[in-house]
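The authors assume throughout that readers already know how a fold can be written as discrete tokens. For illustration, here is how one protein appears when written out as sequence plus structure tokens.
>
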Amino acid sequence: MLKIKALAIASLLGVSFALVGCAPLVTQNPGGKISPANVHKMDGNDRVMLKGADVVSYFTTKSYAQGNPSLKSTYENITFYFASNENKALFDKEPQRYLPEYGGYCTNGIVYSVPWGGDADVFEMINGKLYIFGGQSSRAAFMLDPQKNIALADKYWKDEVSGNNALWHRTKRTTFAKVPHYKSGSELAAEIAKAKK
């Protein structure tokens, strides 16, 4: 009886984990030209870019600003929030100009072909493009050699990540097949510390 109970609990846990894993499978893969994307369910919307950050503010004020759910537009099955009517109008006129690179995922993750994370308040504008990072250490690692890292990220986004399922691709690249130039977090931290000297 105890064995059957344990098996039932294990099965229930397995189903629960599978269902929890389905949310990113569906949400972060909206189809269209921006897929996968760093989007989240919020405020009754299925796919909100960067948890509602105003993507236009990065370009107009060079700063992060949280958007307002009542000021929104939809582009390529993704909802974008804006901090002002002016920013919404700019986006509606020319949406592609304001899109974050690599679907809004951490740019340094894409350097390693890993679509993961991306904090809207950690960013860099380079040559008129918006790059989002998963934290200050990710940004610092990327900025050790931004041109080389942009070339790697562009390659992996184009050849592997774009159009594919984020969760499965992330699992593959973090578990089974790391990129040849992979560096661990501690290795990157050591390089950052060395560069600061």
Q: What stands out?
A: Helices lie at 2-27, 55-60, 85-93, 107-111, 136-142, 146-161, 166-176, 185-196. Confidence is low (pLDDT under 50) at residues 5-23. The CA atoms of residues 72 and 81 lie 4 Å apart. The chain is about 45% helix and 20% strand.
